[in-house]
Structure formats: structure tokens, C-alpha cells
Amino acid sequence: MIDRRQCIGMTLAAGAALSFGSRLALGAAHGKLISRPIPSSRETIPVVGLGSSATFRTVAQGEDVAALGDVLDAMVERGATVFDTAPSYGASEGVAGRLARELGITQKIFWATKVNVAPRGGAADPAAARAQIEESFRRFGVSKMNLIQVHNLGDIPVQLGILKELKAAKRVAFIGITSTDKEQYGELARVMREEPLDFIGVDYAVDNRDVEETILPLAIERKIAVMVYVPFGRTRLFQRVGDRALPAWAADFDAASWAQFFIKYVLGHPAVTVVTPATSQARHMIDNIGGGIGRLPDAATRRKMADLIDTLPPVRR
Known about the structure:
The chain has a single domain (4-264, 280-310), classed as TIM Barrel (Alpha-Beta Barrel). The model is unreliable at 8-29 (pLDDT under 50). It is globular. The protein has 13 helices and ten strands. The chain starts with a helix and ends in a 7-residue tail after the last helix. By secondary structure, it is of the alpha/beta class. It is 42% helix and 14% strand.
């Protein structure tokens, strides 16, 4: 099984003209990280952020979390401010909040978390939901949260109702809902049509395009911001490309690595506001940020990108 680190190494070994570090420098030289507006407020946020599941979560649960401080520092230093997490991501919330305070960057981060105390398909205890939210405030050390979303559509009437109250009280700037389950997309679309949402959070990747059918067009119609998770399919896309060199035409939209290729595909869709790949390594954070710098692929190029990936052997999701 090939992971991202192996993929980078093999891509270089395959005869890329520039070193990985030089390619990153080239990508960064194209300009500032792109920002996009949140439709409900027109406030802009950078298009690349940081997720805290996967390897970030794993490292956060260990004793040595210094590398995560380097990731957060690299993120903010280069203009990426959106940090997405959830109470269910182990120690991610607490560790990120503590490291941000130590680095003096708490107020520079767009804190996005979630709430869900409901068993799948079951009812949420309002008191437990409120307690979970208050704990997130405490962990981040903030008096106002940028974004809280109902995780995986858990008991929308109760939990989204609480978020609407918090937004009305100006304790939360933006509210939303998330789902990474295709079976929930019908319900996701219903809530998008019926509720005053600022954000949705969904999984989306060049080889996982289901949301392009209904969800992303509906987000444009309803003026809802879209936060994208797992743009690499965890490590699935790196496994699929294996030791293949990046196609020469990727330079036409300023992609200098496979990670940037994958991120730029997602950002090429006009509905997408921000993408939050998870990582526990600063060099990967810097590489990911490069995906939000420079040109983005147009619709025809995105079809070409998808066609290329579709020709590769699939791996189990």
C-alpha cells in the first residue's frame, strides 16, 4: 500500500525535473492563497484549511504533539486559517486549542467544530449537546466560535435548533450540517432547502464525485458555503496514482504535486468554499496550501483530470 510520503518519493524518483522542495517554492511563488466569500455574510476565508481527523488525530492522542504545533504554525503563517475538528476526533480539539494558545495564534484561526450527541437515527439530549458545545469553547479558549455544524445530520431539530439559538445570541458566527454518507444525501438536501444554513460539510474528491449531482448545485442555489473533507480519499488517491509522474499539463493550472492536483480539482468547482485535508506534517500542510495558490482548472480541464484518475485501478474505499 502506497501512502502520501511514498508517492512523493516515487514521483521524484520517476524523473521529475524539479525537486519536491523546489516545486513547492514554485507553487508558492504564484501569489497569495485564494480566498472565497461565505455566501450568507460575504466574509471571505482562505480556500485551504486543515482537518484534524486521520493522522492529526492519531498524533494528538500521543505524548509528542510538537509536530502538530508546526502544522498549525505553518498553516497560519502562510495565510490558511480554517481549522476543522469535532469532539469525536479524540484529543484533536484540546491539543489544537492548547498549541494555538502556546503559539499565540488563537485569534488568527477560524475555528470550526461540530456537535453530535445523538446515536445514529436517535434523539439528542439537549443538555448533553449544550455541554459538548461549551466544552469546545473551553478547549479553544474563545468566547465566540466561527462555525459549529451538526455532525452527520444527528437529530437536526434539536441540535440545529440549539445552534440557531447560539447564532442569535452571537456566540457562533456560522452554523451548518455535515454528512459524508451518500445514503444521507436526500436528507441533507431536504435540510438545505428548509433551514437557514451558512455551511454544509461533505466529502468530495476527484474519484468521489457524488455530491456534484445534487448537493453542490443546491449549495449554489441556496447560497450555502461548502467545506470539503477528505479530498485525497484519506490516502486512496495517492495509492491510485502510485509511482506515476504528474502529467505535464498539470502545470497549466499551477499544480506542482499530486496533492495540489487533487485539491485544485475540488476547488475548481464554483460551489466549494474551503477544503480541509488533514495532516500531521508541516511540509504536507505547505504542499496543500499550494493547491489554493495560482490558477485553478476550468470545467473542461476538470473533466480531463477526472478521466485520468478514472483510468487508474481503483482501491477499496
